[in-house]
Amino acid sequence: MPEKEECMETKVEKEKLVVPSKKHIYLEGPNNRTEELQFTWKVFKQFLKGFRTLHFVGPCITVFGSARFDEQNEYYQAAREFGKRIAQTGFTTMTGGGPGIMEAANRGAFENGGKSVGCNIILPFEQKANPYLTISINFEHFFVRKVLLLKYSYAFIIMPGGFGTMDELFETLTLIQTKTVSNFPVILYGKSFYAGLWEYLEVMAEEGTISREDLSLVLLTDSIDEAMAHIDHYLKTNYEIFPARKKWYLFEGKDKKN
């Protein structure tokens, strides 16, 4: 039996992986207590670095979407326009910091004088920081990165994307649904792309696995004007945003006087 297991492992190792794997760090089961403590400390340092870096970025709107679209793609162009419009409102554009939709949104903000933030993930493929960032920070773990992408944002724009985008969409909706975070506006952009998903959400509502009211958390649209008007109206109606104050004793410098 051990020989058979060894053969199976060798066969798996020889297979060419479609997506190169990262080193297994925290999903490999129990380690000794020293290693677990070291891992916890590394995660704490990532969170602390993120909090210190992003504390003064101002109120953000996060744009999620595929890393695989080039600049000729219609959704890339739309995301670039979203970045421009976000900059015009005075909000900071936040993305995952990579190529594709992320690059497009950052680019639109960057080219129009807006703040452009990227929370990049260290991967063995696909993901490199795009050149349109005024603030960039790298994370080793997805769960740390996702906390930071949500923590500073007052609205979320979901462009067409793959597994990662779906993960970000449904985690955001779950947090809003369970009132873990405030009921911030969520834009699902691309009616034709998301038609099948929206139909299945309707099935879920019919089956009772979500309530009909949960669908009201999302605006499905093909219009950038409608999306930005929805965000603007919702935020002006429900929130008053105060800038964070710098603390000199935390080595954060001093606030600029107007």
Model description:
Helix content is 44%, strand content 13%. Among the domains are: 94-142, no CATH class; 196-236, no CATH class. The chain has a 7-stranded parallel sheet, with helices on both faces. The protein is of the alpha/beta class and 258 residues long. It contains 8 helices and 7 strands; from the N terminus they run ααβαβαββαβαβαβα. It has helices spanning 2-14, 33-54, 74-89, 101-110, 142-151, 163-177, 195-207, 224-238, and strands at residues 60-64, 92-95, 116-121, 135-139, 153-158, 186-189, 218-221. 32% of the residues are buried. The chain is globular and about 50 Å long. Helix 4 links the parallel strand 2 (92-95) and strand 3 (116-121). It starts with a helix and ends in a 20-residue tail after the last helix.
Compact summary:
The protein is an alpha/beta fold and 258 residues long. The chain contains eight helices and seven strands, in the order H-H-E-H-E-H-E-E-H-E-H-E-H-E-H. The protein has a seven-stranded parallel sheet with strand order 4-3-2-1-5-6-7, sandwiched between helices.
Topology of this structure?
Layout lengths: L1 H13 L18 H22 L5 E5 L9 H16 L2 E4 L5 H10 L5 E6 L13 E5 L2 H10 L1 E6 L4 H15 L8 E4 L5 H13 L10 E4 L2 H15 L20
Helix pairs in contact: 3-4
What is the total tally of β strands? 7
On the 0 to 100 scale, the average pLDDT is: 85
Euclidean distance between termini CA atoms:
75 Å
Strand share of the residues?
5-15%
Q: Characterize the biggest β-sheet.
A: 7 strands, parallel
Number of helical segments with 4 or more residues: 8
Widest β-sheet, arrangement of strands: 4-3-2-1-5-6-7
Secondary-structure-derived class: alpha/beta
Helix-strand topology string: HHEHEHEEHEHEHEH
Helix content: 40-55%
Large-scale geometry? globular
- The Cα radius of gyration reads 20 Å
Contiguous uncertain segments of 5+ residues:
1-20
